[in-house]
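fyi for ur records
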Amino acid sequence: MFVDAYMTEEQIALQKLAHDFAVKEIRPIAMDLDHNADPAKSAYMDSLLEKADAAGFRTMTVPEEYGGGGISSLFTHCVVGEELGWGDRGVVGMLLSCAKITHLLMADALATKEQRDKWLKAFVDDPTFMISQAMTEDDTGSENLLPYDGVDGGFRTRAVREGDYYILNGRKRFISNVGYAKLNFVYVRTDPTKNILEGSTLLMVPIDTPGLSFGRVHDKMGYRLNLNREMIFEDAKVPVANRLGPENYGIVNINSHLRGGDSLINAAAMVGLARAAYEATLEYASNRRASGKLLVHHQAIGLKLVEMYTQINAARAYIWQASRQIDDRDKLPVDTKMAGSASYFAHEAACDVTRAAMEIHGGMGVMRELPIEMYLRNAYNMLHSDGGIIMKKLKVMRAMGMDVHATNGSEKVSV
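which gave:
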């Protein structure tokens, strides 16, 4: 664990609590779950969630008035996320689940007090309560995040209002926690004549909604302790009372009420993953002999270890700076480029570090009896998650004032 002089006693205590939890509860089961051939049985879910709930991690962002931990600091979430990610990258999804339900329901422009009272209380009271955020579909994914402003693009799951209900039809894919999540935040098209900037709406869809079913579980190369699955809507009936914000509020307006920077929790988890690979590799190189001396004393190996150590610390420092800046946004203006830049840097650093770990381990690096190959799969899998690395860079470009264009036929559309 890395501690700096600016951390509070509470943050240091939470860091240690998260690390101890990873040692005792995550590490002992992570490889067995990862190696399960059935992706539906790889996910951590109920048993680990109950223990995480007892430790306070599952509800740490929920306000105290609803029985949660009341910890709003993004920096603190990143500190905890790194330690849980050191245990296994997939487990950090529970922190994001908690953060998203808190920010969506605590936004006055989106949720009513009745909605908050109902769902935040339900979330806190049930130790296995998770949420999903359903946006991606077969024909649209990262373009939702720029977002693309053509009527022909964006998610197409359709919601038609009939009296006090919306009738939903469509399919989502690659969605985390689906089939376990008790509440699903589903982005739908309520006006197909408009783009998702103007014609989209966010609905809360409980797991037992009539017409909602779950399709195949995606068999991923890594990040297997976090389940991804299809959601299928066939005349699913959702009360209008489950709508967040106005109808046709639009994706940018909806997401503007999120804190911003939650991708840094994912990034911190990547630092934890990279640190796990580095620590295992340093131990291996300190005990394995080749050509008459320990690997760690071979110059080529030593140089790689230095590079691994440097990338981990650089990524952590960048994430901590970016997260503290967001926490202090009432005091100083936020540099909107920083969160995305720190996030993509940490993801790429984790790929570099885990690859170096595999190289230093030699033949043992690709053997499933050691966690090194799992670390590498987890790292590279995440290049395509949370919007993907290219999308993170495009967002930074836009924040830097550069033109980012999506094409609509022969026309260029500035976004």
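The two ends are 41 Å apart (CA to CA). thats all i got for now
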